[in-house]
Write a structure and sequence with these properties.
The complex is a heterodimer of chains A (about 300) and B (about 290). Chain A is mainly α. Chain A has 14 helices and two strands; from the N terminus they run ααββαααααααααααα. Chain A has two domains: about 5-55; about 80-305, Orthogonal Bundle (MetI-like fold). Helices cover about 75% and strands about 0% of the residues of chain A. A two-stranded antiparallel sheet of chain A has the order 1-2. Chain B has helices spanning about 1-40, 45, 60-65, 75-105, 110-120, 130-140, 145-170, 175-185, 190-200, 200-215, 220-225, 235-240, 250-270, 275-285. Classes of the chains: A mainly alpha (about 300), B mainly alpha (about 290). Chains A and B meet through helix 2, helix 4, helix 5, helix 6 and helix 7 of A and helix 1, helix 4, helix 5, helix 6 and helix 7 of B.
Chain lengths: ~300, ~290
Amino acid sequence: MASSALIPAPLANTKVILSWERKRALTGFLFVLPTVIFVGIFFIIPLLMTIFMSFHDWPLFGERAFIGLKNYIDLLGDKQFLNSLGFTFRYTVIITPLIFLTAFVLASLVQQKIPAIGIFRTIFFLPVVIGLGISSLIWVWLLHDQVGIINKILLDLHIIPKAQLWLANPPSAMNVIVLSVIWKTVGLTMVLLLAGMQSIPDELYEAAEVDGANYWQKLRFITLPLLRRTIALALVLSVIGSLLSFDQFFIITSGGPRNSTLSIVYWIFNNSFTYFKMGYGAAMSIVLLVILVILSGLQLYLLRDSSDM
Amino acid sequence: MIHQTAHRQKQALRYTLVYAVLIVLAAAFLFPIIWSTLNSFKPPSEAMAVPPTYLPTTFSLDNYIKLTTYGRGGIFRHVFNSAFVSVLTVLGTIVLSTLGGYGFARFSFPGKGVLFIMVLSTLMIPFQSILIPLFVMLAAVDLHNNLFGLVLVYITFQLPFGIFLMRTTFMTIPREIEESALLDGCTSLSVLYRMLLRLVMPGIVTVAIYAFINSWNEFIAALIFMTDQSNFTLPIFLTTVRSGQYGQVDWGALQAGVVISIIPSLVIFLVLQRYYMSGLMGGAVKS
């Protein structure tokens, strides 16, 4: 009845709300703006520039020139690029299952509810927080043929007849680097698997035990299927990390012997910052980037939830 | 009765076995750290002895003292460089992630979804693939070979995780807490500072730990960008010690440097383990 008197009020309210919402939107935008600027300048622009540079002859100093696809064509004839790609894949294929299996065993051990188990979890995880560069500096000394303690121990135990030059030939250089990286990274995979294992309800195992299932059957029909997503994540992380390896090869073997441990990132690094062929390095970076995006997509697809199939 | 005793014996045997395996494995995992530490306390000549000794025959700090004479300004210079870069990276990352996380969690504005995806999508792209243009760009404004330039790059690398984690943290806090204050006319910034900061502190601590450990340990970007020896961070400086840039490789000094560079990460991890692990899980859940 007094409606006519009330009409202006909601209108005014709407106006207030509108301007309040507009102000709030602006505030929100200002809050995220610094982040957007940082990511834009130091990530998105460089990313686009990598593509741009890959079509150029781009030395550190002097004239740069547009050369179309020449860098990419040169890649196909670059023996060391193909070798580095091959080596990096081989390294990834060797180390990924080893990290996974070791992590799985460790996770199975430390998931038991027994006294002091937390201490062991912490110990297995410790190397993860040490940088890969620093851990490589430890291992290069441990593995040294003369001052290294590993040779000393194996000699004293009569396991080897004389001091080994672990880093002097390609297969053993690969093996010892794999060992050092497993030590450094396995704790991370262990913790991921542990979290997955702990989220599986105990009742499932109890029910299976009532039905007389043994360890392997429980593993095959309960643990592995329910850990699918965790396993996918752990594998993706490990594959990506391995494909991008650099520190361990730079420090432990300097890419040797005879360029046999020159990983793909290492070869990009050499071309871009030793020979200063930055356009060429950019083209290789794009190839690496495409491979990584495809692989993580493929792996996630292969290990997707069975419920989506 | 007999049955129970047998069962108990079996159980005891199982426990013994499990602990034996755990102890052997723990020894293997600790071995590189322990031996590196032991070696750093040998007298320099013993630290380089062929064949090596297992334990130090005398306790000596000489390797650490020698490190102070290496390079320009010795180890202190490089510890300072690393600390400077890491601390500024931590500060920058937590400020930007807190503001950004709040913005993405609580406000709606045009383009929010696109911007959020833009920030998070950088998680899928390896930073190693953009180092070449980053170097060119930083060189163009004279920020390469500059610790502050390195800080800007490191902050950017930490932001996607920081934003993701802080946004999730803000979303777990009930809106009612801030609503009444906002209706009373408080600005969003003062609500964030006075009321919410305390509540999102666990998230901030987690982001800070990751920013610190990652920038303290980072290798390839520092190696590329820092061309002048006086700007080397600790890991880069130590590779010059290892490559024998100052004459014969000084293994004792190298292990002393390793011990110095391990300590901050280990202490932070051991003290704040809970926050570190929660960050790991936060990151795992999203994938």
